[in-house]
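#struct-help
A.M.: can someone run this one for me? Single chain, 77 residues.
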Amino acid sequence: MATINLGSIKFNWQGAYSGSTAYSVDDVVSYNGSSYICILASTGNLPTNATYWEQMSAKGTDADLLNIASTAQGDIY
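D.P.: on it. Structure tokens below:
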């Protein structure tokens, strides 16, 4: 029976994407506010290239709390 080390099954957070870094499968990067996981070893391929990367999470919409109309003291945002 094969033995699997569950401690080695994980994502490898690499921080902000860099075109000069060699990424391996399961490396995760941030790029333009979103997160991507490497699905094929890559160097210099943007995370938006679906051959090498899969998007894990997308950047949301930035709120502009200074320009919200009809606010009152005590409102929760």
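A.M.: thanks! The CA atoms of residues 16 and 30 lie 5 Å apart.
D.P.: also worth noting: The beta strands are 12-16, 22-23, 27-31, 34-38, 42-43, 53-57.
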